[in-house]
Specification:
The complex is a heterodimer. Chain A is mainly α. Chain A has helices at about 5-35, 40-60, 70-90, 95-115, 140-165, 165-175, 180-185, 190-210, 220-235, 240-260, 270-280, and strands at about 120-125, 130-135, 140, 215. Classes of the chains: A mainly alpha, B mainly alpha.
Chain lengths: ~290, ~325
């Protein structure tokens, strides 16, 4: 029915998309693992970052790959400020409240972008958007391969940050035992804000890697956020390796569902996996703790 | 059954029922009808999320099922609108029971429950968008055929009374539940599930009852939406917007209170219209205001508008207030 090269190409494309999914899920899982909150505004921040890449390219003429560094810093600052001055004080430390506040944030951001940019879909045109590598019978999009490599590098860097630096140690301490961390002199609300900032910074990188081949409109984040939730749940909430493996897996599932079931049903496999994992193994496939 | 709490319900319903005699502007009446439909959906959410403490992010699943079942029965099978509505509400309740059975039995709570309900609504949205008998992405258009038996009216006032009738039934049902033993058990489950179970409350069956009634109320809202606008598609019926509307109104009005949804829906949409008037026709401005209101309510007025009013009426003693703050 389907020849082998077509299936192989679909799987390969799925892996390439999946790496960027993983990068988006990484911020979400980190914030969950440390703050124990589900950041509903994650998709909205991603949309913001994608618009920032688009603006940087169309106004300043900045190449998306060169925009990675400044945007990462800017989004770290935005994330830090949002957690420190909005989410933290407004939630009174109740998890249910945080879910509602981040929902409120996502509504505000999405509609502010809608008011500012209208609902048109925009994309970048770079000289290399359509470049491809030929590997045997397969064609690999150059920009998407860069996206894959970038996502894997960022995952590695994040793992190093958490495992090898003092900041990482503080983050892990707060994730394990908030009160204990405070007793040994860690400023918990600072660590929360740093973690949230890192979560937003990974989104800025994901946006830079996505934009050469993807489009942006004010609603685009919504499509990613449920996928990211699925990856986080599948990989085990708070697990970085889980997010990477989960992301690649979900990318392949989406690609194969799209191939076999048609474009409009492509995402249904993702949501079914999401529901099944939540119902039968809420700790995720790779996560040990609940 | 005690008679507590019915007087404000009668007053509010009476004022809204007399409104068409005082106001003839179609803009105003349209606004009120739309807000009443939202109120019904929100009453459903409030029973489960407000009284029962199980915050759902996917009430669109019930709204959409109500709207789609009713539309399919009427358009494809030529069934009478009232019968179709009754069947559609039953289907909505069944979907509620199924989602509840699956997720409560798996022990999902808090954020997990919110996410799984969201995912169920998304699955239904994608299916409705792809399937043939739902009209696919083109949606379903109802035939315009005005008449009482078709639940279609030329006068806005008639539709307002119809919607108000359903809202009044919803208010009475919610008040009866609040006054009943079942209501008390539901509050116990919200406050502390383990303690409720230890006291002999059958937690699973209480939650299942709550989500079934909740889904039925929200499904009624879906049916009314269909009868009023005569068109639905997957992004309207199963869209995230209605899940958010159903959640916002009780949060703003007063979570868990019988009058919370109706007060919240009118407050929110009143603010939305006001911001549209102030800012001109900027797309999305009213929704951005909703998001800001949600954050402000969570941060400064967890009891919503009704909580604020109550605080003004019974000003707490300074001593107890500081005790609360230090606690």
């Amino acid at each position: 029915m389907y020849s082998l090269p077509i299936v192989a190409e679909a799987m390969l494309n799925g892996l390439l998309t999946g790496a960027v999914y993983a990068l988006i899920a990484l911020g979400l899982t980190l914030v969950y693992g440390v703050l124990h909150i589900i950041n509903f505004a994650h998709g909205a921040f991603l949309t913001c970052a994608m618009f920032a890449v688009w603006l940087a390219h169309s106004i300043l003429g900045l190449d998306p790959y060169l925009a990675i560094l400044p945007l990462t810093l800017i989004f770290f600052a935005i994330g830090y400020a949002v957690q420190r001055f909005v989410i933290g004080p407004a939630s009174h430390g109740d998890d249910g409240n945080i879910l509602l506040i981040t929902l409120g944030l996502s509504i505000i951001i999405e509609n502010a972008l809608l008011a500012g940019f209208h609902s048109d879909t925009r994309s970048l045109s770079t000289d290399y958007s359509f470049n491809v590598f030929e590997v045997g019978p397969l064609l690999i999009s150059q920009a998407r391969l860069f996206g894959f490599i970038g996502a894997v590098i960022v995952t590695g860097l994040l793992w190093l940050l958490l495992a090898r630096t003092d900041t990482g140690k503080a983050i892990r301490a707060v994730a394990k035992e908030k009160l204990g961390a405070r007793l040994v002199g860690i400023n918990v609300s600072h660590v929360f804000a740093v973690t949230f900032g890192i979560g937003c910074a990974t989104l800025a990188i994901a946006a830079c890697l996505l934009m050469p081949t993807f489009y942006v409109n004010p609603r685009v984040g919504g499509a990613f956020v449920l996928v990211a939730f699925t990856i986080v749940v599948l990989g085990g909430m708070g697990s970085i390796t889980g997010a990477l493996i989960g992301g690649l897996f979900i990318g392949v599932v989406e690609s194969l569902c799209g191939l076999f079931l048609g474009e409009s049903l492509g995402q249904i496999g993702i949501f079914l996996i999401f529901i099944l994992v939540l119902l039968f193994r809420p700790t995720g496939l790779f996560g040990a703790r609940a | 059954m005690t008679r507590r709490g019915y007087l404000p319900i009668i007053l509010i319903v009476a004022i809204l029922a007399l409104l068409p005699f005082a106001v003839t502007s179609n803009v105003v009446l349209n606004f009120v009808v739309f807000v009443l439909i939202i109120t019904l959906a929100a009453q459903g959410w409030n029973l489960l999320g407000g009284v029962g403490g199980q915050s759902s992010f996917g009430h669109a699943a019930f709204f959409g099922t109500g709207a789609y079942v009713s539309a399919i029965l009427q358009v494809r099978f030529g069934i009478n609108a009232w019968v179709a509505t009754a069947v559609a509400v039953a289907c909505g309740a069944a979907v509620g029971w199924i989602i509840g059975f699956l997720s409560f039995r798996a022990g999902l709570r808090g954020s997990y429950f919110a996410l799984v309900t969201l995912a169920f609504a998304e699955v239904l949205r994608i299916l409705a968008n792809a399937a043939g008998f739902t009209g696919g992405a083109a949606g379903m258009l109802m035939k315009l055929d005005v008449g009482f038996w078709n639940m279609q009216f030329t006068s806005r006032a008639a539709f307002l009374w119809l919607a108000l009738g359903f809202v009044a039934v919803g208010l009475i049902v919610c008040q009866m539940i609040t006054n009943s033993r079942f209501g008390a058990q539901l509050v116990a489950v919200r406050e502390n599930e383990e303690a409720a179970r230890a006291l002999g409350v059958d937690v699973l069956s209480v939650k299942l009852k709550a989500i079934t009634v909740s889904a039925a109320l929200t499904a009624v809202a879906g049916c009314l939406y269909l009868q009023y606008f005569l068109y639905i598609d997957a992004n309207i019926a199963y869209g995230l917007w209605i899940s958010v509307e159903a959640l916002l109104a009780p949060m703003v009005g007063g979570r868990g209170l019988v009058l919370g949804p109706i007060i919240g829906a009118f407050t929110l949409h009143g603010l939305g219209e006001a911001s549209k008037l102030l800012a001109g026709r900027v797309a999305g401005i009213d929704l951005a205001v909703y998001g800001a209101v949600l954050i402000l309510v969570v941060a400064f007025a967890p009891g919503g508008v009704l909580g604020l009013l109550r605080k003004l009426r019974f000003r707490p003693q300074p001593v107890t207030k500081t005790a609360e703050e230090t606690a």
